[in-house]
Specification:
- The chain is an alpha/beta fold.
- The chain has 2 domains: 80 residues, Winged helix-like DNA-binding domain superfamily/Winged helix DNA-binding domain (Arc Repressor Mutant, subunit A); 204 residues, D-Maltodextrin-Binding Protein, domain 2, CATH 3.40.190.290.
- The protein is built from 11 helices and 10 strands.
- The strands form 2 sheets. It has an 8-stranded mixed beta sheet, sandwiched between helices.
- β7, α8 and β8 form a beta-alpha-beta unit.
- The chain starts with 10 loop residues before the first helix and ends with a helix.
């Protein structure tokens, strides 16, 4: 048998293991690869036999990675990401440059889209591709150039630059406040509060807000949502009071669709950042878009 030039195991086995390591589930990996779970398991076992090491631990609800499996998975993710980026550049050669950006629906709809028209007008040679995800795990996708992330700026494997700090305030519709006057924080603690919970991002909660503002409370009257966009829509529809981040509710306050409830404003320990992989340099077009995003924070 002719020895492989790079002394690598089967590429099919590597692809199968990479999908399993990312999904942590053989069935979902098989669906992604359009093969049967049995075929994926066979490829992973073949790779383990080739390496002489166990790469995954099998459980009733899925799999977990061994230390060796985690090391192989990290290398494959980085390598496949580089290959995908190179192939995409080849596909797009001779076309307008493309830059992909990932964010949550809330950040995309309430922060980026109202500003993006100015970028399009100034850079008509660059096509911005939008990827929306509420899952933090998707931020590591190798096919994404830039990410808009909300947090403390520390994410393994990523470089981050702060776009702007955030302040958090209570907001409600004029109609709600006319029917339910709220003048003090004590009255706010008794009002119906629209709470974003269960989302895969570190949102400030109403309990956090009340504690930070020095407001005593026992049990809050919460109506829970797992989407910030939907919670804000509920506030605009007069269903209660929502927490508003200045970057997203500023235009709604300016148009009179929402009003600030009490004068309390809390400095958010987290902020909006633009991030990118520290293992792959940005294209010149992605650098242009990144710098434009940073300039929007300076204007806010």
């Amino acid at each position: 048998m002719v020895k492989r030039h790079y002394n690598l195991p089967s590429l099919s086995a590597l692809a199968a293991f990479e999908a399993v390591s990312r999904r942590l589930n053989v069935t979902r990996a098989a669906e992604e690869l359009n093969v049967t779970p049995g075929a994926v398991s066979k490829q992973v076992r073949a790779l383990e036999a080739d390496l002489g090491r166990s790469l995954i631990r099998r459980h009733s609800t899925g799999v977990s990675l061994t230390a060796e499996g985690a090391a192989v998975a990290a290398s494959l993710s980085d390598s496949f990401g580089r290959i995908a980026a190179t192939l995409q550049q080849v596909r797009e050669s001779g076309e307008r440059a493309h830059v992909s950006i990932l964010s949550t629906m809330a950040t995309m709809q309430l922060w980026l889209m109202p500003r993006l028209g100015a970028f399009w007008m100034a850079h008509q040679d660059i096509v911005v591709e939008h990827v929306i995800s509420e899952r933090r795990l998707d931020a590591g996708r190798p096919d994404i150039d830039l990410r808009l992330r909300y947090g403390d700026g520390n994410w393994p494997g990523e470089q981050a630059m702060k776009i702007q700090d955030e302040r958090v305030l209570a907001v409600a519709s004029p109609a709600f406040l006319e029917a339910n006057p709220v003048a003090t924080l004590a009255e706010l603690a008794e009002a119906p509060l629209l709470s974003v919970e269960g989302a895969d991002w570190p949102w400030m909660t109403w309990a956090d807000f009340m504690r930070a503002s020095g407001t005593p409370f026992r049990r809050l009257n919460l109506r829970r949502f797992n989407s910030y966009v939907i919670a804000l829509q509920a506030a605009r529809d007069g269903q209660g009071v929502a927490l508003g981040w200045t970057s997203s509710v500023g235009p709604l306050l300016a148009r009179g669709e929402l009003r600030q409830v009490t004068a309390a404003e809390i400095a958010d320990p987290f902020a909006i950042h633009v991030t990118w992989s520290d293992r792959r340099p940005l294209s010149p077009e992605a650098v242009v878009f990144r710098d434009w995003l940073l300039s929007q924070g300076e204007l806010s």
